[in-house]
Amino acid sequence: MAQRRALPKICIALGLPDVPRLLEQARREAESGENFLEFRIDYLADPALGAKAITTFLEDYPNCTILATCRRHQNHGRFNGSIDDQLRILELAIQCGARAIDIEIETAELVPARCAQLRANAHLIISWHHFETTPPLEPVLKRMQKVPADIYKLVSTARKPSDTGRVLAASRLSPKIPLVTLAMGEIGFPTRVISPAFGTLFTYAAPAHVQGTASGQINARQLRSLYRIDKVTKAAKVYGVIADPVAHSVSPHVHNRAFQSKRMDAVYVPLLVNPNQLRDFFQFAEALPLSGFSVTIPHKRKIMRYLDHVDPLARRIGAVNTVWRKAGKWRGTNTDAEAVARPLAKLVDLAKATVLIAGNGGAAHSAACAISDAGAKIAITGRNQDRVRAFARTLSAENLTLAQACARQFDVVINATSVGMWPNVNDCLFPDKIPGEVVFDLVYNPLETELIRRARAQGKQVIPGVKMFLEQAVRQFEIWTGQPAPRAAMETAALDALSARYLEQKK
Ligand code: NAP
């Protein structure tokens, strides 16, 4: 039997169409410090050449561990050959230095004796994949364990949050059963980050700069620096953000940086929840259990009916953006209101201020609640006078057309519309003189909006939307952890992530 040194925690899956590119990418990963690489030799026109490339690679990087996979096309791989050919190539890969091989269960259960022979010289990973959904996993595990192996790998596809929950629950069986469990697809993304902490022996990552071999994979640098998978333990508290879409949320950057800065055993993941999956999501949240989560579009209003307690402020605003669990009950509040009031209170005495709010959506409701509670005199404006009038009435505020608003002067102007947001970055609600001394633009994509740019040029004091974004996250952190938030670290993370996202959008 081969020497059983534990495998590293992150395996970079390399599926390249030819040997030169495979070797180039493998070298690049090794140079950046990765030491566990999967050679998908079934991706090559001649897989035997891929097996021989392992020797070439290991001559330069002897400390790397190579996992060789030559999955047959019948089993969703790319190898067109018989089982005999497949096993011969894997045997060659072991001779060439592969320390682990992956054989799909469909092959393994037909040739258990051959698998046992191969296992004498390498870690044998028996794998099972489901590319459509996540069926019950217990029968699958029973089936797989009939073939002795070093690791059983279960990879399904998450269609709903509770699928992700079941895959994570399975990962907790390790080390009773040596497992690698993952759920493919964006909904299953948390499994890629959390499974290793729960017991899974390793997780897969995409290579840097080229496409991964499965949907939902991110690269190793993100797994380590953003999600800290080397640091998070099985006792870690898990948080997240629910949204649809969620992929571009910068909240994971901000909250994970906060946990890192406070050296907390906690992780924050993006959770894709489709509009009709809130009930199923709570199943997942209870089972994990999730300690708390941020809520954003499109769930801020509908989430309220699933909570045990919603505080009066969130009820008045009509939206919850922060949920946490206390004594087994789900509680919700809204930190957006405070996130508007706090930065403003540093510049003006809100109790004596006149404030113009443009807009009548969710952000405008949060802003209006905070400002009216502080005692300010409010006027509402917007493009749809019926909606503006109805909103103003609920606040006993004045309602104005945009032209009327521009003819007046306020202490504060708040843009709570989406005007100026990416991609319409040249739009501005106030094309001429801005009718306020302090200008707060809630839009934070881009960081510097046209309104903020013009306000600066007109000598106004400005508050960019990122300040609100930061404040609402700071308050969330404090609610969840009971500790003061590391504001400076969170602000740097928000600015870095938003700048990077803006550059990405402009490409
Ligand atoms: P929402 O509920 O969809 O409301 C959008 C508002 O913008 C509505 O009042 C809409 O008016 C108005 N609007 C859209 N296009 C307009 C135009 N061309 N002219 C005039 N008004 C227009 O969105 P929301 O959640 O309130 O968000 C509004 C903005 O605030 C977004 O840019 C969002 O990113 C930002 N925001 C920032 C933070 C933060 O942390 N900084 C938090 C929440 C929101 P109609 O009713 O007439 O359509």
CATH topology of the largest domain: TIM Barrel
Number of strands: 20
Proportion of residues in extended strands: 15-25%
Bound molecules: NADP nicotinamide-adenine-dinucleotide phosphate
The Cα radius of gyration reads: 27 Å
Class inferred from helices and paired strands: alpha/beta
Strand order of the largest sheet: 7-6-5-4-3-2-1-8
The level of helicity is 25-40%
Please indicate the count of domains. 3
How many helical stretches? 19
Name of the CATH class of the largest domain: Alpha Beta
* Gross morphology: elongated
CATH H-level superfamily of the largest domain: Aldolase class I
CATH architecture assignment of the largest domain: Alpha-Beta Barrel
Q: Extract low-pLDDT stretches.
A: none
What value does the average pLDDT take? 95
Give a description of the structure.
- The chain contains 19 helices and 20 strands.
- It is of the alpha/beta class and 507 residues long.
- The chain folds into 3 domains: 10-235, TIM Barrel; 239-334 and 470-506, 3-Layer(aba) Sandwich (Rossmann fold), CATH 3.40.50; 338-463, NAD(P)-binding Rossmann-like Domain (Rossmann fold).
- It is elongated and about 85 Å long.
- It starts with 9 loop residues before the first strand and ends with a helix.
- NADP nicotinamide-adenine-dinucleotide phosphate (NAP) binds at residues 336, 359-364, 382-384, 387, 416-419, 421, 442-444, 465, 468-469, 472.
